[in-house]
Amino acid sequence: MKTKIIAGVWLCVMVVLSALQASDIDARGATFPKAVYTEWMEAYEAQTGNKIHYEPTGSGDGIVSAVQRKSDFSGTDKPLRSWRLERYKLRMFPVVVGSIVLAYNIPGVQDNALRLDEEAIGAIFSGEAKFWDDARITKNNKALNLPHEPIKVAVRKDGSGTTYNFTYYLRKIDYAHFRKAVKKLDWKADTIAAEGSSGLSETIKATPYSIGYTDFSYKQKYDLSVATLENRVGKWVAPSLQTSTDGAKSAHLKKKNNFYGIIAYPKGQTSYPIIATSFVLLPYEGKEKNKEVVDFFNWAFENGEAIANKHGFAMLPKETLKEIDEYWDEKVL
Known about the structure:
- The protein is α/β, with parallel strands linked by helices.
- The chain has two domains: 24-96 and 255-260 and 278-332, Periplasmic binding protein-like II (D-Maltodextrin-Binding Protein, domain 2, 3-Layer(aba) Sandwich), CATH 3.40.190.10; 100-247, D-Maltodextrin-Binding Protein, domain 2 (3-Layer(aba) Sandwich), CATH 3.40.190.10.
- Helices cover 43% and strands 20% of the residues.
- The chain is built from 13 helices and 13 strands.
- It has helices spanning 2-23, 34-48, 59-67, 82-87, 118-126, 135-138, 161-173, 196-206, 216-222, 241-248, 287-303, 305-310, 318-332; strands at 25-29, 52-56, 73-76, 90-105, 115-116, 152-156, 191-194, 210-215, 225-226, 228-230, 236-237, 275-283, 314-315.
- The strands form two sheets. Strands 1, 2, 3, 4, 6, 7, 8, 9, 12 and 13 form a ten-stranded mixed β-sheet that branches.
- Helix 2 (34-48) links the parallel strand 1 (25-29) and strand 2.
- Helix 11 (287-303) packs antiparallel against helix 13 (318-332).
């Protein structure tokens, strides 16, 4: 009898453990929204008991993981066109909008003090401007007395959605040097390559006379100095929650084409000029697990704005969120 009782108790324990395991969600991909996702997931677990494990491996890995079904959902800052989603039996929806900042480490130059227009940015990242006192840089920075020091350009060495959106922007402002948007680029400038947004931010922090691209939340985390940029209509704009929100208003993402869209070079008098949308990829199959993922993001859309804003990310416009909800009902659940 005692043996039967023990066996019964053990069976109950196994059932409970299995149920708990079943409610866990494993995800991976884009590093861009990591700060927001991490805090959302912690708050969601505290409220619901449901655990989500998100590994920030980069958008390239996120797409591969989605295609190979290595995760319950994947994050990517490079959206996939509808024909690719159809080929790999995937669904896609956007989540948040954030700024890609140009962070620099120039001794004596304070945060937001460096001003870079489109000509200067193109010259730096194409390798044409090799020193900080290049005329294309100094013309808008007369008061800074920039030194004759080599420019060290920090870039991502992994497949990155941040790189994709940044090179999309570079293509818009300097087509002569940047012909297409890519997740990895053979840079012509003198570069230092780093893994992930954290690695790139750490590299800039540790390397005098460096400059590189990362997202706004890493600027905050690593206390990086970032440039004020000339936007699409010729206005000087520093990255902030407000200027990201203004840029997000141009995010006309529609469910009819699975929300495909790139908004890295938005219009608007007060829009920051380099912004990106982070997306989620889900498989056609696995309806139960997909429902758990949708439950999480539905909670985030309803409760997570303060967390997103704290990290410098803007929520999507209400009309986009309404279309996402309809998309979930029609194609995901």
